[in-house]
Write a structure and sequence with these properties.
Layout (H helix, E strand, L loop, with lengths): L1 H27 L11 H11 L5 H15 L3 H14 L3 H13 L3 H14 L3 H14 L3 H14 L5 H9 L4 H15 L3 H13 L3 H9 L12 H13 L3 H14 L4 H13 L3 H13 L8 H13 L3 H9 L6 H14 L3 H8 L9 H14 L3 H14 L4 H17 L3 H14 L4 H13 L3 H9 L1
Helix pairs in contact: 1-7, 1-26, 2-3, 3-4, 4-5, 4-6, 5-6, 6-7, 7-8, 8-10, 10-11, 11-12, 12-13, 13-14, 13-15, 14-15, 15-16, 16-17, 17-18, 17-19, 18-19, 19-20, 20-21, 23-24, 23-25, 24-25, 25-26
Length: 462
């Protein structure tokens, strides 16, 4: 098990690194003048507008670098631009150098070019945001905190805390909390600092601290219970620590101040549904309808009301909503009828409805899950295998759907502890779609259960 955990952690860490790299380069530079796909000609023209003849060498080197960019040789292009930016006083050159160093994944070089950019740039706050992300990517947390505090101190933007939050939120939750711990220590007397800190604490499951901060938030003149997000944050914290009564009391308290706040009402419905309090959820939906927050003629609302009534055992009321969808959305009509008959334990009728759902419809996979649940309830594993075999035949020309079915079948038999058959199905998938990442990861999980650590290690490495 320890081997598996180590491999899993390594796999996730590498995936996280890859995603952070994409976000740093593509999001931070989204408003930049030059993308990685700039043609050499266009960029040459841009430079030639700025430089005189004495700068012809720099223009020549920039053109050379842009040709390398066009050929995806970011490494060489980044080196050339680093040399150029040290000799040029144009902040655009330094910015391009920083961007290309990022595309080349040369973060230490990116840091160096950003120093030059910071020196030349008029808008230094924007550059500091980029440098903050570079520090975090290099795991230089102390420097990241120092840069963050410098950004906030220098910024006159009322959304300065939001901008920092948007910059850092793509990194690990624990790292984001380190940044905002420091922000809150220094700026806890500012309303928005508390607002974003609470969101960070929720992401890190620091529910007791969330409750403490929100219960003291009334000291700010900006605070109002009409700001429903505070109510949702506080209710969620109570819910997560198991204090359901306080959760519901909080929502009702905030609803008194903002009875027509759509998000707060929807959150209340969500909590009631999670608590299986379907009767109250239905009643509250009717309240929302009476206040024109929702419309029962809306397809999504009708679907939700049908499901709630099915769960509550109110089949006649459920039929009213289901029947309203018969002409407008036949797939939803059949799916909801399938759920209703399944709930009533009329399994044959349920399967009949669920099998009518079109393969291309978004409810198709859900219908497969429900039919599988019926067969598992009856311990009809052979019937379940035959059912999947028939579905493969029906969708054999749709590769995307076949991949999803293979993953679903593997998962279903895995959850039933039929590990050998799960391995057989995922092996089938990899024979047909070699090196599919979802299949490799799934097979690694199955391999652990049957003691095949060699397959586990090999698949995670791939």
């Amino acid at each position: 098990m320890q081997v598996h955990l180590t491999l899993y952690t390594s796999y996730i860490a590498k995936l996280g690194w890859f995603l952070n790299h994409l976000i740093i380069i593509n999001i931070l530079f989204i408003s930049f003048a030059y993308s990685a796909s700039n043609s050499d000609t266009r960029y040459y023209i841009k430079i030639s507008e700025t430089y005189n003849q004495s700068d012809s060498y720099l223009m020549q080197k920039a053109l050379e670098a842009e040709i390398l960019v066009r050929n995806a040789d970011y490494d060489s292009a980044a080196d050339i631009y680093y040399d150029i930016c040290l000799k040029s006083d144009d902040p655009e050159i330094a910015r391009r150098a920083t961007q290309l160093a990022g595309f080349a994944k040369k973060y230490n070089l990116m840091l160096k070019t950003s120093e030059r950019w910071l020196l030349l740039a008029e808008n230094k706050i924007a550059v500091k945001h980029v440098r903050l992300s570079i520090f975090l990517e290099l795991k230089k947390i102390d420097l990241a905190i120092e840069e963050t505090l410098s950004i906030i101190k220098s910024s006159k933007d009322k959304d300065k805390f939001a901008l920092v939050y948007d910059t850092v939120k793509v990194f690990e939750d624990s790292v984001v909390q380190q940044i905002f711990d420091s922000i809150y220590d220094k700026y806890q007397d500012e309303y928005l600092a508390s607002f974003y800190y609470v969101q960070v604490l929720l992401d890190n499951k620091e529910y007791a601290k969330v409750i403490e901060i929100i219960n003291g938030i009334a000291k700010f003149k900006e605070f109002s219970k009409k700001e429903s997000r505070w109510g949702i944050f506080l209710a969620d914290a109570y819910f997560q620590i198991g204090k359901i009564n306080l959760c519901i009391e909080t929502i009702k308290d905030y609803l008194e101040k903002s009875p027509k706040d759509l998000y707060l009402n929807q959150y209340y419905i969500q909590i009631l549904t999670l608590q299986k309090n379907y009767e109250e959820a239905i009643s509250h939906y009717r309240f929302m309808s009476a206040n024109k927050l929702i419309d029962f003629s809306n397809i999504e609302v009708a679907e939700k009301m049908a499901i709630l009534n099915i769960q509550a055992g109110k089949y006649i009321d459920a039929d009213n909503f289901i029947d309203s969808l018969k002409e407008r959305n036949p797939n939803s009509y059949n799916y909801l009828n399938g759920l209703k008959e399944k709930k009533k334990k009329n399994y044959k009728a349920a399967e009949k409805f669920l099998k009518k759902i079109e393969k291309k419809n978004k409810l198709y996979i859900d219908s497969i899950k429900k039919i599988s649940e019926i067969k598992i309830q009856k311990k009809d594993y052979m019937g379940l295998k035959r059912f999947f075999k028939g579905e493969y035949e029906a969708i054999k020309k749709n590769q995307d759907l076949e991949i999803r079915l293979i993953l679903l079948e593997t998962e279903i038999f895995f959850n039933e502890k039929k590990y050998q058959y799960s391995m057989k199905r995922i092996d089938f998938g990899l024979d047909k779609y070699s090196n599919n990442k979802s299949f490799l990861y799934t097979r690694a999980l199955v391999a652990e259960q049957i003691g095949r650590l060699d397959i586990l290690e090999n698949d995670l490495k791939k």
